[in-house]
Amino acid sequence: MKQKNIIAVVLITVVIFVGTFVGLNIFNSSKTEKLDKLAHQCIVDGNYQKAVDYYSELYDRTNDGSYIDKKREAVELLSSKNNYDYGVNYLKEMKYVDAAKSFLKVSNKDSVNYQKAQQRLQESTQAVIIASDSFAEDDNFDASLNMLNSYARVMPHETIVIDKIKEVEKAKNQYNEKKQDEEKQRALSEKKEKEAREKAEKLANESAEELKKEKENTKKPDKKDESYETDDNKRLIDLCIRLVGKTYLVTADNAKIYEEPNNKSQVISSIPMGSEVYIYEAKPDSGQRVWCHAIIKSADSLKSYDAWISSNNLEIND
Question: Where is this region: Disordered (predicted)?
């Protein structure tokens, strides 16, 4: 009887042990399957850090090498996501080259972030184009090209950037050619102006002498009115003498300048207020006006003229 009881106890123990073992295996298998599904769902949702954690736990539970491979893939996807996030921040900070570098590191296996990264790359490229255009519009072509070339080194196959580089280089060359032409014109204008000024100064001396002689030969005022100021002719001659050899500014806007000392002659041009007038010859006119033969430097251009202008258009305080 005792022997039967012992056998029964042994059998029960074995059954319990086997049942426990089987139960644990079923439990572990169920837990493993659940963790595997959770890890996969994290990959789908883009929660790559959580997936890495799950695959680490699965490997620890099962010692199955396949989970090491899956964990490695999850780590790569996590790096991809981080690069996408870096790129977004760089884009906000207008660091377009760094943004492009980050977006290019987003893996095409990253189903959550890859297409978004491609769209962000387009945004970054457009932002570079807009910024480079802004520099070029301010004639800051070097800054524009530096930005474009830096971006092109990261995105060498971006045709819109390559085309923009060619466009800005062409605009820069045209700008430099224009500046060189302007410098040549300025130098030529200054040379002509200097020559004209030297000639005008010589003529001014001759004109002053002639005006003094003309003043001496002018008839004296009538004895009934010996006031010198009432003699318009003498006053105008005195004004002519004072004007010759001096520089004045134009006070009228769009003052006309003429080929001859009268307002019926050919109009050469109209000059703006502030233009410089060096007078080397002066002729009295009727009334209160003197015609001034002068070298005239326009205030709004490089042009200078040898022409006649009315004293009424000049700032004469002396």
Answer: 173-229
Task: Report domain extents, the chain.
Answer: 22-157, 188-219+227-313
- Residue 248's CB: how many other CB atoms inside 10 A? 21
Sign of CA dihedral 263, 266, 272, 276: negative
Which element (helix H / strand E) includes 245?
Answer: none
According to DSSP, residue 227 is labeled -
Query: Quick one: three-class SS letters along 19-80?
Result: HHHHHHHHHHHHHHHHHHHHHHHHHHHCCHHHHHHHHHHHHHHHCCHHHHHHHHHHHHHHHH
Which tokens sit at 67? Answer: 């989970």
How many other CB atoms sit within 10 Å of the CB of residue 154?
18
Helices (H), the chain: 2-45, 48-62, 65-92, 96-104, 114-137, 141-154, 159-217, 232-243
Is the C-alpha dihedral spanning 265, 267, 270, 271 positive or negative?
negative
Cβ 256 vs Cβ 314: under 8 Å: no
Using one digit for the tens of pLDDT, what is the confidence trace for 270-309? Answer: 999 999 998 988 888 876 788 999 989 998 876 889 999 9
Q: What is the percent of the chain where pLDDT is above 70?
A: 76
Whether the Cβ atoms of residue 250 and residue 271 lie closer than 8 Å to each other: yes
What letter would DSSP give residue 106? S
